Every structure is written in C-alpha cells, then in structure tokens.
C-alpha cells in the first residue's frame, strides 16, 4: 500500500469525477436519437442507467482508495490538505458545484457522515466566488419584431433530424395564441424570446424551453414536441408559470438535457420559475445529489434564522412513519418507525427496501436532518445532528 498523498488522492477523485461526467454526458446525448427514432423503452433505460451512475461510481472509488492507501485513507489529519488541492484542480470547470458535491459524497461515504466540517469538505456554497457564465452560452436571443419570422427561426434552429409535420401550421397556431393571450399591442421594441440552447428530453416528449421578455419581465415560453411516424409536431405551448412548474416538479422523472454548465441552466430556469427551489431545479436536470446539497444548505440557513419549533405534521397519523414539519418551511420530514401498530404486517426492512426503490427510480428519498435541537415530542435514535447527503 502506498503512503497517503493528498495530491494523489485529490487527483484520483478529480479523474473519477471527470469519468463520471463523461459517462453522464454520453448517456444524455443519446436522447435526441432516441426521440427521433421513437425508442421510448430505450430512453427510459438510459434514464435509469444515468441515475445509477453516481451510486455505482462512488463505492468503486471509495474501495479503490482503501485498497491503494489502506486504513490511512480514513485518517482525518490529511483531508484539510486534500480539499484545497481538489478545489484548485476543479476551479476552471463549468460544473464545479457538481464536482464539489461529488467530493462531499466520497468523504461522507468514507467517514459515515461524521466530521462534517468545512475544513474537510465543501459544506458551504461557493457559487458566489465564481464568474457567471456568458449568457450567449446558455440561450439564444430572438427579437420579436415580426412574430411569424421569429417563430420560424426558432423551429429552424431547433430542427432535429426528423422533419416537422406541418411547421407553417404550428407557427400559425403559436402566433395566434401569443397574440390572443399575452403579447401587447403595440409590441414594445425590446420584446424578444430567449431560448435555452439545449432541448429537454423526457419519455416521449421533447421540450424547447424559453422565456418571453416583455418590458423587463420574463414569462415562460415552452414548446412541447412529439414524434410520431417519422414526423415532429408541436403538441402544446405552455405560457403560465404554474404549468411549467409542474413540468419541472420533483414528482416527474429527470430531463435528459445537455448541461455543460448546470448552474447556468438552473439560473435560466429560475428566471422562469422564481418560486421553484434551486434543489428541485438541479434535481429536474439529473443532478439529484447536488439537489440534496442545495436543500441541506437552504434548510440549514433557514434554521439559523428562525425560532420555530418542529411539530408533528397535521393530518391522520401514519402507521409506518412519523411525519413532522417546521411551520415556516414548506417541507415535511418522514422517519420510519422502529415498530408498527397492528394490523400492519410490514417490517422496517421492507419499508427501507421500498424507499431505496423510490430513490433508484426518482432520485429522491429522505435523509437525516442537519439538527435535532428543536424537535418536539420525538425520540428517534436515527436522527443525527450535522449530517450530509451521501
């Protein structure tokens, strides 16, 4: 076994992360062909494979480090040296926040969620320390001086390798609805549509995601495309925030969308959905682990600025889980009980297995709360302070 080398460990983590992202992007890039060929079963398999990448990569990396460096890999003494070396190695990356979460996941796996301190991992958000991505990298700007011409340009720029069935009819329908529901008369000179450069694919749909820019206000502009019998047509135009919010809800499966700079894509989506949490937006584009990181940071910050007490959630008491909430935070937390009341025959192990299945299919599951200092009327051994998602 080799002596512990912070430089070598940081490099191992960086190389493994780069390989993970290459595999992630390779799967994502298949989505367009799957859509064009109407390979619906295969696109679901791709989504599942991409979701499983993270949980297969981390155990392999942890095991490789243990084999290379032995028990010394779990010596905290040198990890304050590893973190800055790794941070320097990834600082140029447009997905640096995903790289930081990857590092965190490895650390918490090695140390079983102990010693969650900023000296050892990326406990706090560092996005504000990095320059923003240039807008033109993320979206294309289309002036709305002539509606039909603008819509034709959008459809042409996002043309796939399968032709539109009736592009002129699609443009006419879209223009008619825009003029009837949202566009003012006369049109302001700065009016425009800004479209995210990458198409969002999911199941049988493809979505062109953009925003209408009218008098410094942003309104969602989302075109839903379907592919049938070798032709593509516009199935729907979505203009209201609530419907788009459902489209990007955590109850839906992830989008397959090429995102070299995830934070920039999330910022663009946030401009359409200002009430949507960053955690949910990261989750919607396939970065569920970083979504959990965003949630923990947001929730921890909220706890530091409120004196609210945790309370049992209102409603009928469940037989399998204890459910509690914070009155000022729009989230409920669930903990599996150690014993279930009759007539429940389910075991704790079976419930955990089902939860793991939900994690595998949706990416979301419960994880420990970062503090237990204000939980009332709950005695749960599994609730641990200062925890972090793995």
Report the sheet with the most strands, covering strand number, pairing sense and barrel closure: 6 strands, antiparallel
- How many alpha or pi helices? 13
* Rg, nearest Å: 23 Å
Count of distinct strands? 9
Number of domains: 3
- Globally, the shape reads globular
Q: Helix amount, in percent?
A: 40-55%
Mean pLDDT, nearest integer?
85
Topology, element by element:
Layout: H1 6-29, H2 31-36, H3 40-69, H4 79-90, H5 96-110, H6 135-138, E1 139-143, H7 147-157, H8 167-181, E2 192-196, E3 200-202, E4 205-214, E5 217-228, E6 231-238, H9 241-247, H10 262-272, H11 278-284, H12 288-303, E7 311-312, E8 321-326, E9 329-336, H13 348-362
Antiparallel strand pairs: 1-2, 2-4, 3-4, 4-5, 5-6, 7-8, 8-9
Helix pairs in contact: 1-3, 1-4, 3-5, 4-5, 7-8, 11-12
What does this molecule look like?
The protein is an alpha+beta fold and 390 residues long. It folds into three domains: 6-129, no CATH class; 135-286, no CATH class; 306-390, no CATH class. It has 13 helices and nine strands. The strands form two sheets. Strands 1, 2, 3, 4, 5 and 6 form a six-stranded antiparallel sheet that branches. Strands 7-8-9 form a three-stranded antiparallel sheet. The longest helix has 30 residues, at 40-69. It is globular.
């Amino acid at each position: 076994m080799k002596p512990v080398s912070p430089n070598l460990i940081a490099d191992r983590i960086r190389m493994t992360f780069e390989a993970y992202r290459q595999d992630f992007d390779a799967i994502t890039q298949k989505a367009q062909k799957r859509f064009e060929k109407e390979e619906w079963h295969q696109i679901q398999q791709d989504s599942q494979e991409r979701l499983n990448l993270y949980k297969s990569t981390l155990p392999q990396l942890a095991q490789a480090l243990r084999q290379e460096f032995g028990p010394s890999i779990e010596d905290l003494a040198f990890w304050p040296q590893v973190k800055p070396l790794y941070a320097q190695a990834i600082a140029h990356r447009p997905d640096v926040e995903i790289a930081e979460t990857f590092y965190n996941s490895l650390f918490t796996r090695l140390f079983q969620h102990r010693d969650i301190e900023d000296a050892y991992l990326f406990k706090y958000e560092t996005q504000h320390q990095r320059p923003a991505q240039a807008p033109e990298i993320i979206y294309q700007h289309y002036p709305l001086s002539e509606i039909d011409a603008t819509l034709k340009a959008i459809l042409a720029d996002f043309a796939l390798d399968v032709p539109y069935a009736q592009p002129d009819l699609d443009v006419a329908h879209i223009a008619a609805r825009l003029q009837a529901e949202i566009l003012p008369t006369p049109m302001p000179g700065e009016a425009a549509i800004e479209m995210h450069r990458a198409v969002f694919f999911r199941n049988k749909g493809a979505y062109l995601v953009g925003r209408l820019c009218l008098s410094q206000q942003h309104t969602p502009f989302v075109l839903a495309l379907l592919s049938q019998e070798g032709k593509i047509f516009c199935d729907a135009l979505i203009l209201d925030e609530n419907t788009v919010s459902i489209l990007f809800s955590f109850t839906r499966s992830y989008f397959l969308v090429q995102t070299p700079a995830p934070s920039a894509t999330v910022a663009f989506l946030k401009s359409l959905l200002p009430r949507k949490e960053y955690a949910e937006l990261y989750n919607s584009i396939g970065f569920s682990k970083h979504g959990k990181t965003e949630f923990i940071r947001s929730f921890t910050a909220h706890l530091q600025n409120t004196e609210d007490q945790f309370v049992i959630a209102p409603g009928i008491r469940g037989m399998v889980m204890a459910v509690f909430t914070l009155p000022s935070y729009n989230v409920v937390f669930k903990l599996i009980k150690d014993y279930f009341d009759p007539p429940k025959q389910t075991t704790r192990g079976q419930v955990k297995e089902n939860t793991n299945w939900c994690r595998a299919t949706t990416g979301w599951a419960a994880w420990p709360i970062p503090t237990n200092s204000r939980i009332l009327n709950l005695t749960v051994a599994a609730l641990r302070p200062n925890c972090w998602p793995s």
